[in-house]
Amino acid sequence: MRTQAAAVPRAWLPGAVGYTCLLIGLVDIACAVFPKLRGTKMQWLAGQLPGGTTTLAAAGTLMVGLLLVMLAHALRRRKRRAWRAVCVLLPIGAGLHLLRWHQIGPAVISLVLFVVMLVHHREFYAKADPRTRWRAGAAFVLLAAVSVGLGLLIVGVRHGAEVNTPGLAERLQHVLYGLVGFEGPVDYRSERVAWYVGYSLGALGLITAGTTAYLALRPEKPEPELTAEDEVKVRQLLERHGERDSLGYFALRRDKSVLFSPTGKAAISYRVVSGVMLASGDPVGDPEAWPGAIKVFMAEARAHAWVPAVMGCSEQGGEIWTREAGLDAIELGDEAIVDTEAFSLSGRAMRNVRQMVKRIERNGYSCQVRRVGDLTLEEKRRIADAAARWRGTDTERGFSMALGRFGDQGDDACVVVTAHKAPEEGEPADADDLKAVLHFVPWGPDGISLELMRRDRAADPGLNELLIVAALQAVPALGVRRVSLNFAMFRSALARGERIGAGPVLRAWRGLLVFLSRWFQIESLYKFNAKFQPEWEPRFLVYPQTRDLPRIGFAAMQAEAFITLGLPTPWRRKQRQGLMPDAPRLTKAA
Questions:
Q1: Cβ atoms < 10 Å from Cβ of 262
Q2: With a threshold of 0.85, does the pTM exceed it?
Q3: E-assigned strands of 347-458?
Q4: pLDDT tens digits, 94-132
Q5: Residue 350 and residue 405: Cα distance in Å, rounded?
Q6: Distances (CA, A) of 302 to 187, 277, 322, 338
Q7: Nearest to 308 by CA among 84, 132, 545
Q8: How far, CA to CA in Å, does 383 sit from each of 102, 373, 484, 492?
């Protein structure tokens, strides 16, 4: 089996059906919005029907078209519920087209698509995605905007039938009244036109209210979360196999779900973002059990028609993913790993770091390196509040290489490095001396992995270098031999592109990366990590097909919180970076 998609006959069919459904929906909306064509043979037949039939048919066509447009994306993703709804809407839409006396073509296309969907019903098997209540509010805002826009278009194209010449404000008022079922200030010479405008506006309002009510009242599925039972199992796997992957501890993020192999000896943590089932790092546990966990992961992705993807897996993990799941892999970047036993500030290569550290120490800065379990509750709160205060955005970023919390009782083995500055003359003695913090998570019994790096923006330059050096010099006393620093995206391209003899393509690729570094820390992270003479370990992105890369990239940006599509900040629930409200649940696993 090459890929999961290849196991499904006619994998192209849901996409073709979805786009055809979208086209039919747009045609339905256009037919309902714009005035009817005159002089056709079907006009005489329509005249023999009851007076309001074609008017109601036009309003019904508008409703069907809007619903088809809304369902087209889910249809392309093989969603079973969308298939059922479209199978009901297509015959209704075809009948409404025939009643409108000039739309035989769209009716025939709708019926043909209906037959195709019935014949190939097995192609539409996917379960519904997890959902939350806020989607009802988002749908209401979007549908209300679309309804007002279409309503203004419906009223505007019939300006010739208006009694007077109403302005934009009167037409907008007429639309808003019509959406809730009342007559507005605009009068028409023809009673048929007045009926049509009223029925169409009422249909738009009905779709907006009905869709919002359905989304708000349907049973809610929980957000992805790591249950207490799953967390205990993952921690047990980390105790036995945690030294294999520096990203293994990040499987304990509370906003990830987890799937276990049939034997329970391996697990994969993931989150679903924009239809992408996104895992990070290698599976946790025994490598011999990884294939079983991968098969469970791929089965879950196929059941929901999610796009499977893995961010930041190791070379060994990438080989197993590509072999067992039939996926492809591309090098994403390199992880900087420092051997603390070999690290030294001596030598010409470390001259700049050595001078910077000495200079900032002369400015009155010092560092403390401790296990989180050795901190008092007050110290934890102080560090957590400072980290949140120094954060540059309203949203806590991170997914694949961030824990998203500090001071939890289950994280006592984490290492925290804090930088302090002695009060200067004229400053009160009780002034806050905390100026920067590093937070490392465990990487097996003898390693740690950098999770958080924050500093006071008013602090002196070079403070991050001081923190890293202090950590590398102090953690051997804690039994730590390996330290994983930041991840450098596309490091090899940046390094090779600046060498003598680099080709024009490689130089152009490096130039693009340097340009993008104005907004994303690509080149700066590489150069910062390179100061400490690390070993570079490649990390890979695993994906099904090349055409899925833009979608996976967008989902990854959302997961890492570089792109946020949630509620506006005033309505978003805020959590302090640090003491989580559910922290006590981990006492049994500590």
A1: 11
A2: no
A3: 365-371, 415-421, 434-442, 447-455
A4: 887 776 545 577 778 888 888 888 888 888 877 777 666
A5: 33
A6: 54, 10, 16, 40
A7: 545
A8: 71, 13, 22, 35
